[in-house]
């Protein structure tokens, strides 16, 4: 057993009078009148922790040591594309010309930032094959909602918003959520035995009420939708729009352009494919590119070039769905993605795709036989194995996932897609070496052996992490979202 | 783990019939596949439901799934104890973890349901 080190919160470390900065007394007199109702005004102390700078620094460094992250170890979380984020990105995003720009500065004083947005949008369009873009959405699901609202505006302009949007049963959970948010009914269609879209099921589901299809390509099984051109033709024949969820773009960029397949809208996750940080290290960014007929509905303002080729913000957009994000989107994230693409160049983008696919297939070749593979076709950048072959020993996918933590690896995406029981969806990305893939494969094979010979080890895992197996059910039922913890809990 | 005296749906609900009242829950197999259940949403009493219709939501650590009405009829009782302690379903799916009671409208609909033997075959037991 390792020593359990639990880091106290900053609130618990707080001592009255400690401070990280010595500020002079304020020379701004307090406001005498306020429009804020009396009952809403704070009376007491704001309650922020009081600490020295060094304590705060050590607190966060300790937390990062307790955590697992891509700078510490392999992170094969499927469909999340946890590639290494080059440090040059951070240097570029830290340049004072970018960090000292304010979004309300006059356009003529922030020319460089608008030029960067225009260049990034144009590079993304080169990858997707569309001519128009928005960089506003702040995440992938936000991009989905933006795209669906544009599709709704397009149908409304044609006199009928339509009623439903079709998704395959392998789709990301965000797809049906975005559909409902955009005011549509999700209609799920079954996949074929090979894990791709069933054309007969699609034919049966399509009607004049279909506003769109949302398709992830390659899908969440890592399989390229071989009939996608036909799928797009069938959708377009009834006037439905084709939306491509770009979560898995790392498997085709530089080789296949969504627009050439027939997609009217595609989204990009800069925090996946384009090497900007995920989640807490983010924020995210989910730009969209669209076909010409959807261009009038782009969120306002649109970044475009004027007749002299100069980049401008275009606010004069009568058919726009409006703003989707404060100002222009998460600008410093765009800087990182811009630099990543400029460092790669056209050939580099293709190489990313090649290595992502090669790495996934190499890793799969080492794991086949030790884990079950439900869908047998050759995957692209990720694959879905499962632990159903270990169920006879009382082992579930969660036990494999927790044991991986003891080996210093993050688990694959678990229990998704829903069409694969005990799924372990694995995406190594192009940034891992063969040695790193081999050590992960060795650990997985060792865990399968433990499952057969000594399953109790897996049930009690993890034992090498700062905190052992969590009660995930209780954590979800009993959400403590404030500090201090309320007395009644 | 599949009680012989119950009938089942393909969606892993169990049904116990006493007179014209059907008590409904999800099977031991279903709770195992879902993992720890964290939240459930059940219909109101007095609601009329149709066989196969979604009448509730079961949210678990692994997935969110619908609860389907195994038979048509009127919801006459829901298990209030599950509100706040849905883990009862994991602990005792065939007993205290029951979810709703339906006043059966048409008993012939039971012909669409599975026997314990058929359900065992479905889940590979």
Keywords:
heterodimer; A: 489 residues; alpha/beta; Aspartate Aminotransferase, domain 2; Aspartate Aminotransferase, domain 1; 4-stranded antiparallel beta sheet; 10% strand; B: 125 residues; OB fold (Dihydrolipoamide Acetyltransferase, E2P); 6-stranded antiparallel beta sheet; 3-stranded antiparallel beta sheet; 9 strands
Describe the protein's architecture and organization.
The complex is a heterodimer of chains A (489) and B (125). Chain A is of the alpha/beta class. Chain A has helices at 10-13, 53-66, 87-93, 96-99, 111-128, 140-157, 174-181, 199-205, 228-237, 258-261, 331-367, 397-406, 434-453, 455-459, 472-477; strands spanning 132-134, 164-168, 185-189, 210-216, 241-245, 265-267, 288-290, 302-305, 311-314, 372-373, 383-386, 413-414, 423-426. A seven-stranded mixed β-sheet of chain A has the order 1-7-6-5-4-2-3, sandwiched between helices. Chain A is globular and about 70 Å long. With 125 residues, chain B is α+β, with helices and mostly antiparallel strands. Chain B has a single domain (7-123), classed as RNA polymerase II/Efflux pump adaptor protein, barrel-sandwich hybrid domain (OB fold (Dihydrolipoamide Acetyltransferase, E2P)). Chain B has helices at 28-34, 87-91, 116-123; strands at residues 7-8, 13-18, 21-26, 37-41, 48-49, 54-60, 64-68, 73-78, 100-104. Chain A binds chain B through residues 398, 414-415, 418, 421, 471-474, 476-477, and chain B through 33, 35-39, 60-63, 86-87, 90.
